[in-house]
């Protein structure tokens, strides 16, 4: 099915644009939540132990990486928007799915990072032996976003290969 009619061209461009927007919006939403929630924990912890602030910034950095995942996939998707008869509805829906994949995984990962980061930095301030456990849990929370990035890139590579 090659895009020939005006309606198909509009739908394919719209779904591709929605994929790029979904990637950056949802992954940034997850990053913002993770940063805010972890920041609350850092602020509460810093009142009693200000020397641990820099050590407690790890959840904030990990949450910020989620937005980069969305940016990467959004940039890949935007590169595939072109008014060519080779750009099919299938390809545009794959781009939409790629954006949703990284975006929704970014939201889930951001929520997990925020909750673990908040509780983790507070508990690490009270018991320093919990630091390694907090980092391990944060890694498992971050990898949820990485899974979405991998699926999004695979979807995009699939349609890039079929366009040739």
Structural overview:
The protein is mostly helical and 164 residues long. Helix content is 82%, strand content 0%. The protein has helices at 6-48, 58-79, 89-126, 131-162. The radius of gyration is 19 Å and the shape is elongated.
What's the structural blueprint in terms of helices and strands?
Elements: H1 6-48, H2 58-79, H3 89-126, H4 131-162
Helix pairs in contact: 1-2, 1-3, 2-3, 2-4, 3-4
Overall pLDDT metric: 91
The SS-based structural class is mainly alpha
Order of H and E elements: HHHH
Query: In whole angstroms, how far apart are the ends?
Result: 15 Å
| CA-atom Rg in angstroms | 19 Å
- Count, helices: 4
Query: How is the biggest beta sheet arranged?
Result: none
Work out the helicity level: over 70%
Number of strands: 0
Apparent shape:
elongated
Compose a concise summary of this entry.
By secondary structure, the chain is mostly helical.
Structural descriptors:
164 residues; mainly alpha; elongated
């Amino acid at each position: 099915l090659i895009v020939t009619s005006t309606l198909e061209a509009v739908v394919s461009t719209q779904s591709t644009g929605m994929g790029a927007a979904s990637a950056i919006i949802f992954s940034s939403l997850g990053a913002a939540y993770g940063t805010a929630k972890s920041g609350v924990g850092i602020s509460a912890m810093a009142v009693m132990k200000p020397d641990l602030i820099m050590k407690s910034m790890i959840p904030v950095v990990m949450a910020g990486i989620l937005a980069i995942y969305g940016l990467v996939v959004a940039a890949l998707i935007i590169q595939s928007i072109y008014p060519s008869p080779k750009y099919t509805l299938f390809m545009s829906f794959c781009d939409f799915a790629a954006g949703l994949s990284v975006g929704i995984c970014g939201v889930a990962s951001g929520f997990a990072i925020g909750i673990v980061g908040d509780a983790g930095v507070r508990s690490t301030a009270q018991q320093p032996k919990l630091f390694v456990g907090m980092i391990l849990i944060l890694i498992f929370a971050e990898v949820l976003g990485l899974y979405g990035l991998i699926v999004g890139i695979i979807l995009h590579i699939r349609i890039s290969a079929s366009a040739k």
